Amino acid sequence: MFGDQAGSVELLWGGRERPSRGPKPALSLERIIRTAMDLADTGGLGAVSMQRVAGELDFTKMSLYRYVPGKTELVALMVDTAMGEPPAAAGGDWRTALREWAGQLAAAFRRHPWLLEATVGPRVMGPNELDWAERALGALSDTGLNGGEQLDAVVVVTGHVRAITQISASLGLSSAQAKEPEQVMAAALNELLIGRSDRFPALTAALASAEETDSRDQSLEFGLERILDGLEAHIARRAKAPAPARRRGRRPPTA
Hints:
It is a single chain. By secondary structure, the chain is mainly alpha-helical. The protein folds into two domains: 5-82, Arc Repressor Mutant, subunit A; 85-180 and 217-239, Tetracycline Repressor, domain 2. It contains twelve helices and no strands. The longest helix has 26 residues, at 147-172. It is flat, with a radius of gyration of 24 Å. The model is unreliable at 173-179 (pLDDT under 50).
């Protein structure tokens, strides 16, 4: 089923290293993964290559192939390691739990911005990443949403988190104020709007109001709360809706 990604499946799901007798080897899969993650944290995913990782470890490139077949498999292991285990289930209702989950996901993307690039397209997901999905779906399991709606809700929340952290990461590449992406963007827009407020009155007014009320840098929380508001309204409508009528089976013809 997984074709040329079978190696990633084996490494992620089949056990990474088999214990062996004798002295502990100087090189290990864990060291390889951590070294590759350090390179990605510093220079992005493009900075990771088998040759570069081997050089950082002071080993030959061929030595790495004893542990991992290539970069595709290495990136899959990096993603699962970087994601780590999901946060413990938050107490309270589904909304509290999903809000906490989204916040922790955003934190993971901020710690390792290359995750945004590494978690798109056809790929094999590891057990930690699926544990994150399991935790989010578990928060919605008693809401009355069906399975498809639960999955869609998690996709929508994840998409929002990804979009905002992507903006933060892109602004952070050239800004010392990466933790305040909207402030960086507002400063750039204000500079562009000098002498052009007549052409962009709504944008000028919105930026001025945000400055006066200190209501910037809330995109993640604001968007998440509106998504949760929508889910709450949908769950409430579902609870009030009459149960669908059970279909009656067709009676067999009589002779």
